[in-house]
Amino acid sequence: MVEKRTPLPVADAVHKVMKHQTSIDTEWIPIEEASERFLAEDIVADHDVPPFNKSPYDGFAIIADNTTNASREHPITLEVIGEIGAGSVFENNVGNGQAVRIMTGAKIPEDCDAVVMLELVQEHTDNGKNFIEIKRPFKQHDNISFQGEDTEKGTSLVSKGTYIHPGVTALLATFGYAQVPVAKKPVVGVIATGSELLDIKEPLQPGKIRNSNAYMILAQVQKAGGEAKYFGTLSDDFDTCLQAVKDALSEVDILLTTGGVSVGDYDYIPAILKNLKADVLFNKVAMRPGSVTTVASLEDQMIYGLSGNPSACYVGFELFVRPIIQNALHSSTPHLRKSKARLGVDFPKPNPFMRFVRAKLVDEGGSAAVFPAGLDKSGSVTSLSDANALIVLPGGTRGYQQDMIVDVLLLNEGEGSEWPWENIVPYYK
Amino acid sequence: MVEKRTPLPVADAVHKVMKHQTSIDTEWIPIEEASERFLAEDIVADHDVPPFNKSPYDGFAIIADNTTNASREHPITLEVIGEIGAGSVFENNVGNGQAVRIMTGAKIPEDCDAVVMLELVQEHTDNGKNFIEIKRPFKQHDNISFQGEDTEKGTSLVSKGTYIHPGVTALLATFGYAQVPVAKKPVVGVIATGSELLDIKEPLQPGKIRNSNAYMILAQVQKAGGEAKYFGTLSDDFDTCLQAVKDALSEVDILLTTGGVSVGDYDYIPAILKNLKADVLFNKVAMRPGSVTTVASLEDQMIYGLSGNPSACYVGFELFVRPIIQNALHSSTPHLRKSKARLGVDFPKPNPFMRFVRAKLVDEGGSAAVFPAGLDKSGSVTSLSDANALIVLPGGTRGYQQDMIVDVLLLNEGEGSEWPWENIVPYYK
């Protein structure tokens, strides 16, 4: 008999999921391997940057007062009493009438207070001594990078949960993080169900299709920051399925299944959840595609029943799994990034439920337009390869017109949104 | 003595670099490892998707004509003569007055031409036979996913050079690519020069700084799609440097050095390039930061002398190295993505050269605003950790005002630009 399920609004469903936190440990890994991971601790400057007053140019460290009367007609002459390579320190005194040759990045001698660039002086040698001529006055502090001007000791640099891109890596290296504290990747298991599924290596057979969802989700898990673990395809035998789910649960933080969540005779996921005494958060969401998405918790583990349809499976993952993975990584913006865009064409399809349309977002010179990508059917796999966004159309009986401003969720952005589920209302500009 | 160098406009410099192609082989790797790689071949559909007419719902396959007179008051009754699980095929004939139970994704029997959803029928059993009642008429082709409606055999699906995101992975799995042809990652070596550099593990010492550039560039190489190989920090000894560069060149496709490209007494890169008889494409670019960026070619290898200043080094990489790596990966959009944004504050600093300002791009609901990130000095390392864009300000003697629309290069976007170096002119909207 057909089970009646009450569809939950999308925002409520996400909210229910987000209440469950997967707690994850910190691990220290070499900086060379830390790219694309998430910081597990705040990083605070333990020294000034620059750590000393330094020269931003190749040139000569001088005492500015000595140049007050310098002009093209009456250049002043200073004796060069030494040289400072980057990385070395000039220990002697520098007096009036003297200068020191200094390399980019080297520490300014104590007695000096300005730097003259190499190009601006005339050098000459006299009696075995080196001299420079300067043709204009310099002010105190000219051409000096001051200790701490970039960053003062104690400054909070980047916070826990920050995604490590190359600019963050530079900062970590500057502050000596040869080993970097990052959030361990949550282990996310994937099981595909359905006797219609051929292994990716098998030739096509009548009535059967290749298992594309599992590989797609494995890629989604990696992209969201998780460690993906594939447990293969299950047959339609209930006991085998149940045991496989139990085995998988012993190895993962989060378990994803695809297929078997509808109300068909071979849709075992609901029965498996019941058998495990899992707490089903919801088994129907007021959305298209993916309305049959089921989420359950079992102590501190999460079990997802994603749809067997590729696009429904894809959307279910991005809405309900991605933020849980990102939360475990301490991200403060765990959801897909929400933005707005001009709807490039009419979208006449009426729909009682909130609809997520796979779409191509196009940059029109600083503002965005969005176009549905390919066939908008939940079974479509080709439209996913073109899509870089989901158009979010709230439930209602009417369609939407070209040039309305609609909400979009961006699929390929590293940076996410805090909570995108407010004020989703298309409008004319 | 100071060598005179003629600064080359940025677009010309990029153009010169792009003439040199690094040729890269194809390798076949398991689909599970192909995420974030680039396809080395066009992918063409070798079968229809779906490969047969299938049911998008759980329900009953019927002959539509049988339901012409069905109504709430006068439901019609069909005998259920069998069942088709997903993945199996119904071999028997279906005649008038008959129906077949069908699961989501299963193949429609030859004789049937519509599907009735499970929820819409009333089931009953009579004398050991199963029947359904249908209360409204269905049309031919109702609720059928037709063979090839998603993709027809022979359709070009994704082209060589496509970045493999989860949607592309789904497509590859659908078409049986257990092994995926991807471009081999070009091997990019990194050498840091400068005796002021401390290893990342060493405690600070007077006059010295930690080597942050090398780790930053290693991360940039990975992000751009290359395989990064670190050759360590060199001292200021010329012969040691030369030998290290020669050794590194025997192991890489592209070699990056950081530091040592200015006109200081310890800046050996120009002399090394001369010694190697490398063809110097340019050694000065009309830009800030990074004007000393040097690029040379040596047969089919590229050698880069990037600045020792963190931000100058960063910008030099993104402008001149990233597109060469992406080209080797067959990307059709190898450059940083160009977009436009509203300048959020005045930028009064005048500049004779084109300026790249590290900046934070903020989404203001479908249109973008951009704000300089931190201190705009080429030595600044902290501003890089906040930045997600570079503001591009063309050379000129005046500054730029708030609310002008300026060009920006996006740092964290997977998708790039074809050729961003046209029409860079700020304007008021």
TrEMBL record, chains A, B:
Protein keywords: Magnesium, Metal-binding, Molybdenum, Molybdenum cofactor biosynthesis, Transferase
Catalytic activity: adenylyl-molybdopterin + molybdate = Mo-molybdopterin + AMP + H(+)
Cited function: Catalyzes the insertion of molybdate into adenylated molybdopterin with the concomitant release of AMP.
UniProt pathway: Cofactor biosynthesis; molybdopterin biosynthesis
One GO MF term: metal ion binding
Pfam family, one: MoCF_biosynth
EC number(s) from the headed UniProt entry: 2.10.1.1
PANTHER family recorded: GEPHYRIN, MOLYBDOPTERIN BIOSYNTHESIS PROTEIN
Domain named MoaB/Mog: residues: 189-327
One GO location term (cellular component): cytosol
Organism: Salibacterium salarium
Family: Belongs to the MoeA family.
Cofactor(s) required, per the database record: Mg(2+)
Protein's name according to its UniProt entry: Molybdopterin molybdenumtransferase
Signal peptide, first to last residue: none
SUPFAM superfamilies (UniProt xref): MoeA C-terminal domain-like, MoeA N-terminal region -like, Molybdenum cofactor biosynthesis proteins
Gene Ontology biological-process annotations: Mo-molybdopterin cofactor biosynthetic process
